[in-house]
Amino acid sequence: PTTDAERLARGRELVEQMSTRLAAATAVRVTTTEVRDVVHASGRKETVSLTGAYTMRRPDRFHTKATGGRGLETWYNGKTLTIAMHADKVFAQAPMPDTIDRTLDALAERYDVPLPMGDLFHSSPAKALLSDTTTGGYVGTDNVGGTPAVHLAFKDIGVDWDLWPPTQGDHLPLRLNVAQKSRTGQPTADLTFTAWDFGPQVTDATFVPKVPAEFEGIAIVQRAAAVKNTPPTPAAEPAAPAKK
């Protein structure tokens, strides 16, 4: 591609190919290495390195676990989301919608807790990633961990994001970088995908919270704008920790 229109069209084409591959999967497990910005209430920005493990089963289950930072672990079972922060020994629960798509939207819009790779879990990742206001597209070729890749760079309202799919073979991302321009401190998250598994052995037990009994229950605070502009939802009471 040599023009802006051609670069955008080629970029969209490659994102659609990735989206088709991911959307066809009933269950997915992927591991990552990550570098993220954490913006504290004081405004201080801290960079942390993590390893992540993400398991998703359509249409209404996911589990995430990060090693490093605050040791964040989440379980979603189609009804509630449980978040545990192992470093702080606290956990919280809140009612959620009945699908992954709607829950990811609720986390971002109501609780200001966007998952950097959440769009890849959507039933249509391309629809979640691309809009009529998306610009950018094909940049060139690159190398990710020794694998030849295509570098795509997009901009949209409130977010810049880069994606590196391989130049050949399966259309699964090798790396994703997200800069959340509309959030305080404009934090970035850079994820390198180390292994994709489309046949993981998962059961309902995978998505059952395993919160240590000594963890303290705390509230998940909704955004003020969400509370003001939407009908109230029942307050989430900390549930008894599920034991291993």
Q: What does this molecule look like?
A:
By secondary structure, the protein is an alpha+beta fold. Helices cover 17% and strands 39% of the residues. The protein has 4 helices and 12 strands, in the order αββββββααββββββα. It has a 12-stranded mixed β-sheet with strand order 7-8-9-10-11-1-2-3-4-5-6-12. The chain is globular and about 60 Å long.
> Which structural class matches the secondary elements?
alpha+beta
* Global mean pLDDT: 91
Placed side by side, the strands forming the largest sheet appear as 7-8-9-10-11-1-2-3-4-5-6-12
Relative helix content:
10-25%
* Percentage of residues in strands: 35-45%
Residue windows where pLDDT falls under 50 for at least 5 positions: 231-244
Number of strands: 12
Described by strand count, sense and barrel closure, the largest sheet is:
12 strands, mixed
Coarse shape: globular
- The SSE order reads HEEEEEEHHEEEEEEH
In DSSP terms (H or I, runs of 4 or more residues), the helix count works out at 4
**Overall radius of gyration:** 18 Å
Gap between N and C termini, in Å? Answer: 54 Å
